[in-house]
Amino acid sequence: MKYYIIAGEASGDLHGSNLMKALQKQDRNAEFRFWGGDLMQAVGGTLVKHYKERQFMGFAEVVLNLRKILGLIKHCKTDISSFNPDVIICIDNSGFNLRIAKWAKEQGYKTHYYISPQVWASRAGRVEKIKRDVDAMYVILPFEKEFYDTYNYDVNFVGHPLIDAISDRVQVDETTFREEHHLSKKPIIALLPGSRKQEITKMLGVMLSLVNDFSEYQFVIAGAPSQDYSFYKTFIKQDNVAFISNKTYDLLSVSTAALVTSGTATLETALFKVPQVVCYKANAISYQIAKRIITLKYISLVNLIMDREVVTELIQGDLNKKRLKKELSKILDEDQRIKFFIDYYDLEKKLGGKGASENAARLIYQSIQDRQTQ
Question: What's the predicted TM-score (pTM) here?
Answer without folding.
Answer: 0.79
